[in-house]
Amino acid sequence: MAFPKDFYWGGATAANQLEGAWNEDGKGIACPDICTGGSANTSKRITPEIKEGIFYPSHQAIDHYHRYKEDIKLFAEMGFKMYRFSISWTRIFPNGDEKEPNEKGLQFYDRLIDECLKYNIEPMITISHYEVPFGLTKKFNAWVSREMIDCYLNYCRAIFTRYKGKVKYWLTFNEINSATTPVGGFLNQGILNEIKEMEFMNQVDIPQNRFQGLHHQFVASALAVKLAHEIDENYQVGCMNIMATSYPLTCKPADVLYNQKQSQIMNWFCSDVQCRGKYPNYIHRYFKENNIEIHMKDNDEQILKEGCVDFYTCSYYMSNCQTSDPEKQILGKGNLLGGVPNPYLKASDWGWQIDPEGLRFSLNEIWDRYQLPVFVVENGLGAYDKIEEDGSIQDDYRINYLKSHIEQMHEAILDGVNLKGYTPWGCIDLVSASTGEMRKRYGFIYVEKYDDGSGDFSRRKKKSFYWYKKLIETNGEDLD
């Protein structure tokens, strides 16, 4: 089993989950910087200001800001062809609305990008990855306001210009469709409808704000695509969605229709706009039934049409089932998206059901719908890792998870899907976005950092490190 010769093997991270150095070299406060730690059983909290005596995981994260050379060298040792990472908006524009960028922030990413290129690792940069400047949340509730579009484009212009000739692949928003769910309003869009301390999983939700915010993000994304192509004709700009694969719980027609409706809103609405350049017909009924009215300017539809993305990317971790029976609908353990457990699947330590075949199914659906190059830019297993007496970490459960998904990616390629690359999530241990934990580990590289804030940040290779290295060396032929 071999993959295409130009296939991009790599890994993925996000600035707020690994960099740390939350207030160094002019960086401003981002929304994750006001989120406390949590656990699989307790929700992290959102505090409207930084409070003494409270542990904020993003403030130190895994100290990648000071250790990036060591980390990139380890990625290169595995043989990475691509590294997907994000730029922290508040390193470049600390409050989000400054006219001129912060030079020290730009210089850090100069060094990070150069370190990747030193090892022939292609950077793929996420422009906004769950790290909206908190200054913009306080100023006008972030993406609720159309003013965010100009702030975002000013940020894009700064980084598109600065890194011209060094970066080819860009993603406008991480998991943009998370904003179709209540949690995504703050996580993705920086929207806080009540500026007070609250549980991350129990926020005040106003759907009108989230979907109006999505419209502003759609316009901003389309304008960013056009701007990127104007600055560098070699730039390729993509979208990034959660692929929340779901199945009807039963073959009852009501369950089939309910699943289709849920999938349209969650999986297809945002990418239909970004890939096809217009709002899909099915969304209008949803808006009407939920009292949502999207306010547009006269030329917005033309902007969306002219700013379609060049490629499609997604995260894929799990699948679930949907039922029309409200008494059976639950928000599963560790699952932000709800749904009903599939009786045919096993689950991770955090209750995420493991479904490799669902990835093949999804890739075929994506390719058939859009006919655009596809990347799987997040996939992985969050698990408890144990350091053995000899210092090793025998994470066969992670190897088995990744192996089974890679096998299904290859099947999708044989099906005819134009799959270009794979960057599994958390190639090095980092802070979990959903729970704020370190114990939920994804990486090939173990980081000595723990939920109580202790740890010396030292790195050690897991068994999966050597497995992935061999897999890349053989371009997917050796999966054992």
Automatic annotation (TrEMBL):
Active-site residue numbers: 378
Sections of the chain in a coiled coil: none
Record-linked Gene3D superfamilies: Glycosidases (3.20.20.80)
Keyword field: Glycosidase, Hydrolase
A GO CC term attached to the entry: cytosol
A molecular function GO annotation: beta-glucosidase activity
A family per Pfam: Glyco_hydro_1
GO biological process, one term: carbohydrate catabolic process
PROSITE patterns for the chain: GLYCOSYL_HYDROL_F1_1, GLYCOSYL_HYDROL_F1_2
Annotated family: Belongs to the glycosyl hydrolase 1 family.
Stored PANTHER family: 6-PHOSPHO-BETA-GLUCOSIDASE, GLYCOSYL HYDROLASE
Protein's name in the database: Glycoside hydrolase family 1 protein
